[in-house]
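U., I forgot to send this yesterday:
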Amino acid sequence: MASSAIDDSATPAHSAPVLVPHRLGRKQLKWIIAGIVLVVLAIAAIAYWREISRYVSTDDGYVQANQVEVTAQISGPVIKVYVRDQQAVKVGDPLFDIDPANYELALQKAQAQLELARQSVSQESASVASAQALLAQRRAEAANARRNWNRNQELMRSGFVSPQGAENSRTELATAEAAVKAAEANVAQAKSALGRLGDQNANVQSAITAVRQAQLDLERTRLTSPVNGVVANLTLQPGNTVQPGVPVFVVISDEEYWIDANFKETELVDIHPGQKAIISSDVYPDRVFHGVVESLSGGSGTAFSLLPPQNATGNWVKVTQRVPVRIKVEDPDPQHPLRIGTTATVKVVKSG
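Result:
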């Protein structure tokens, strides 16, 4: 019993020194945690300050590229399609063929018309030559009639020819001179009908133009890719009929990409063409692209909408507007192809 009493009385004496250091440790832990939080906040604040002092950033950016609409220039049924949707193509790769039968016939007809035009020029050249020969004959006859008239005048003065005979020779001269004028008119008419000689003739030129147009239409029965890129929105199938000027699908060019980054109007003071930019595509979060500011839009995004806001009417609340800034991607990567319309984060390096 004595030993039990001694043990009970010793217990408080041993427990008191243990509780005091435990309480002191919790206070120290709180201070340590508070200190760590303050350090983290300070580091974050410094990092944020450095970020905003060096960059102007926005996550309101969208990837863009040139989109070439593939459009037929002639009409006709499609007989073959060489590509499929989302297929990569190079400049000059065949896309689809239009039935060439009608255009082959049109070319043959134009070539036949050209041959007829050249034959017509040959015939009209012969007509000019014939008219010139007749003119030469009429001039010779007129010269002979004038000599007779002059000779008969001398003979009439000498009494060897009667006045009636002299008058007849004068009539013959007048008739011959009239024939010369008629022949000259025929020559002029023949030359006018002929025009220029050879392929410089207007009718031949027209026929040559028709042949070239027919050849061009025949060549247009095969459509090829105008740019390097990717086929998109393709639904064309053999048997479909295409019409001139009606787009059938799109080729998205991979030769140039840019970001339409929508910065707040209050941030534009720090953005100028030529500044470098860092681009992070949401498609490839681990891949960084580099760019350069090309231009700033002349107005905010809402200024060019179909129904721009009418701030002069009704209750008005000031809202910070965003202005599109075009940033060219300087290092597109074929291993990480950009997709138009996808979002991107852009940081423009402040100058100075």
